Amino acid sequence: MTEVFLERDFDPGLTAEDVWDMVRETGHCFQMHGALWHGSLLAADGRHMLCHFSSPDAESVRIALRQSGTQPGPVWAGTVHEAPKLPEADPGYSNVAVTRSWTEPVQLADIQAIENAGAWCLDAHGVQFVRTFFAADRRRMVCLYRAPDAESVRLAQVQAGMPVEHIWTFRPLGPL
Fold it and tell me: Contact, 11 vs 47, CB < 8 A?
């Protein structure tokens, strides 16, 4: 099975209940194509969402989306990289995602080296790394953090010299 990610934007934004309705309405199409939904990350404003599936390939997710009448956003295969030690959940912390993209393929080890060198920045701002989704074409990455707020993550990323496309707080939905 391949790890597959779907990114979607919405205007107006969705609620968590909207997402659960979509899961109930489209679940049979994904099952028919061998795609298992692991959950979604819904932006706090409901305007952006990242969905995670295991599937035979990315095309199976695209087909299931089309057959269910859903307009697909970018769909990409990738890998999942967990923090060596997952942080203990602090109820006052937020879930924050950082989206990164490159025009040329990058090596995960090179990006990890930049983050390791700037680890003090994460610590200084109370930012805890949780997980990374890295595209198979090596041009896209979404990193998940726990932090006091999105601004703490932004400051840590800038100070560490990490590339940033978009930073957003999210609510996890599903088993993730």
Answer: yes
pLDDT tens, residue by residue, 63-115: 999 998 887 789 999 999 998 886 676 778 999 999 999 999 999 999 999 98
Pick from 174, 168, 175: nearest CA to 46: 168
The domains located in the chain, with CATH, are: 2-78 (3.30.70.3090), 79-173 (3.30.70.3090)
Q: Which residue type, as a one-letter code, is found at position 17? A: E
The beta strands (E) that lie in 12-93 are given as 36-43, 48-55, 75-82
Alpha-carbon distance of 52 to 107, in angstroms, equals 22
Q: What pTM, to 2 d.p., does this model score? A: 0.93
Nearest-10 Cα torsion for 176, 82, 105, 113 = 150
Let me know: does 66 contact 26? Beta carbons within 8 Å.
Answer: no
Read off the pLDDT of residues 42-62 as tens digits, 9 standing for 90 and up: 999 999 999 999 999 999 999
